[in-house]
From TrEMBL:
InterPro entries: RmlC-like, RmlC-like_jellyroll, RmlC_Cupin_sf. One of its GO terms (biological process) is dTDP-rhamnose biosynthetic process. GO terms for molecular function: dTDP-4-dehydrorhamnose 3,5-epimerase activity. This is dTDP-4-dehydrorhamnose 3,5-epimerase. The gene is rfbC.
Length: 201
């Protein structure tokens, strides 16, 4: 497995080695040793594992968790093809307002680690695309927030050749500037402290 840090501090992409044969293939999208070496601390205790199935054009996010309590995520797509996007919403972060995208899916089996305080979005590029999530805390609807994927100030990479399909919540999500003005955005230093408490070393 190889890894690299994204343009968002603390966010990483992991690319595992795949072992194909005439039966199919075998792959391990998560390895504790590589995670610890790359991120600099052990992985968080997993409180919930979830997955979504999306048809082509579905846009989910950018979603983030009210911080505190905050949540860290490790995500990958075992089937299909998705454009995964990490957005830094942490006030005070050196990369505040920046994003980076990574192509995930069954061809690469890449995975992405999202630290506490950053937002996650993806665009399904194929029907029946699956996204798997390992979460540091259980899903609490009242704590889940969103930013508009079409915020012109962010200019997120929604491909022009797909017809976007959004939930009602995501259609009504505020821009980054609106979220900042209303006090919804996480603080960088507080996010780092929460992550450190999740992953003691």
């Amino acid at each position: 497995m190889i890894s690299r840090e994204l343009a968002i501090p603390g966010a990483f992409v992991f690319e595992p080695e795949s072992f194909p044969d005439d039966r199919g293939f075998f792959v391990s999208p998560f390895e504790e040793s590589e995670f610890t070496k790359s991120v600099g601390h052990p992985p968080f205790p997993v409180a919930q594992v979830s997955y979504s199935v999306s048809r082509r054009g579905v846009v989910r996010g950018p979603h983030f968790t009210r911080t505190p309590p905050g949540v860290a995520k490790y995500v990958y797509s075992p089937r299909g093809r998705v454009l995964d996007v990490v957005v830094d919403l942490r006030l005070g972060s050196p990369a505040f307002g920046r994003w980076e995208s990574v192509l995930l899916g069954d061809e690469s089996q890449r995975a992405v680690y999202l630290p506490v305080g950053v937002a996650h979005m993806f665009v399904a590029l194929q029907d029946e695309s699956v996204m798997t999530y390992l979460l540091s805390s259980e899903y609490v609807p009242a704590n889940e927030l969103a930013i508009s994927p079409f915020d012109p100030g962010l200019a997120l990479p929604v491909p022009e050749d797909v017809e976007p399909i959004l939930s009602a919540r995501d259609q009504q999500a505020p821009t980054l500037a609106e979220a900042k003005r209303t006090g919804l955005l996480p603080d960088y230093e507080k996010s780092l402290a929460i992550e450190a408490a999740l992953c003691p070393w």
